[in-house]
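User: For my dataset I need records formatted as: sequence, then structure tokens, nothing else. Please produce one.
Assistant:
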Amino acid sequence: MITKSYFWTVFVSNAITSIRKELRDYPFISFFIKVGDGIIDAPSLALADVGIALQIDAKENAASDAASVILLGNRLSQIVDALDLARATISIVHQNLAWAVAYNFVAIRIAAGVLLPQFDFAMTPSLSGGLMALSSIFVVSNSLLLRLQFSVSKRELR
């Protein structure tokens, strides 16, 4: 069951009370996001798991100081973009972690000499270093795909 609660045009004391009540009443809530743009939003942005501040007119304010994420501009669609970017980033992190674990699972055994008795193959230090560099190149290339993915999706929106 997914529970979503929305509050808008709420005073500071009421916002903090509402947040604490939601977190108390629904202990299974995995995270709490608060969006704000002004000085009165700072306490609730600091209380939230993820505080998103909309920075208007490129001015520093208390909301920007208390928030985890600061969006430059005055478009609410940037919130959706930021959440999509966060999901895609976590996906890339999981892919890179899976690649590193699988690579090390195989490469450490080969470097230890598991292929030596049957195939008379032992890795030299230079080959090991080259394969480690290749692994790093793969991880960096996979991470750069994130940039390509979001530049293509922005072009499609225009």
